[in-house]
Design goal:
Elements (H helix, E strand, L loop, with lengths): L1 H14 L5 E12 L17 E13 L4 E15 L6 E20 L2 E15 L8 E13 L5 E12 L4 E13 L1
Length: 180
């Protein structure tokens, strides 16, 4: 009797994780490991890196238990100091993107997913920089499906490469997902 109850509980817990269409969002710091060049600008404190933020949201669908796809919109914001004038310049871009997820392994409510993504960053504001143009990236998401059936929370770690300027960036952010 006890063994049957344990098996029933495991099956119920697995079925509590929703699969299907989902909305997702994230926000967190981004570090540019190579500084975008804009008319002689350099990063703060004469470093070869710069900091900023990235906010993203999107919509996706599970194509089974191991593969998912998604599309969305990112906003990149990176701050620099013009080493000639000392003026702080903020550069940002808006980027539509597509994402492909592969679930690696998980245990009941925990899931580790690897993803690849690509997008096209559109410059915003008056400063045109090498953060504009095509971008590719990839990373990991460590996700926990909460007791609230439709919600999951996680931590995403990603690397990005902007093809136009050869700039490399890294991003870490908490994630929130709602599955319909």
């Amino acid at each position: 009797k006890k063994k049957v109850d344990d098996e029933t509980k495991k099956v119920a817990e697995i079925h509590a994780v929703e699969r299907g269409r989902f909305m997702f969002g994230n926000i967190g710091p981004v570090m540019m490991l190579s500084v975008p060049t804009v008319a002689g600008l350099s990063a703060q404190a004469n470093s070869s890196s710069a900091m900023g933020n990235k906010v993203g949201f999107g919509y996706g669908a599970d194509l089974g238990s191991l593969v998912s796809i998604g599309v969305g919109l990112n906003h990149w914001f990176v701050g620099f100091i013009d080493d000639r004038t000392g003026e702080k310049l903020d550069m940002s871009s808006l980027e539509p993107f597509a994402k492909l997820y592969f679930s690696l392994f998980g245990k009941t409510r925990f899931l580790t997913t690897v993803f690849v993504e690509g997008g096209y960053a559109l410059p915003m504001g008056s400063v045109t920089m090498e953060l504009a143009g095509p971008r590719v990236g990839g990373g990991l998401v460590f996700e926990y499906y909460t007791a609230l059936r439709h919600f999951s929370i996680g931590l995403g770690i990603s690397g990005n490469y902007f093809l136009t300027g050869g700039n490399i960036g890294a991003h870490v952010s908490p994630t929130l997902k709602y599955t319909f």
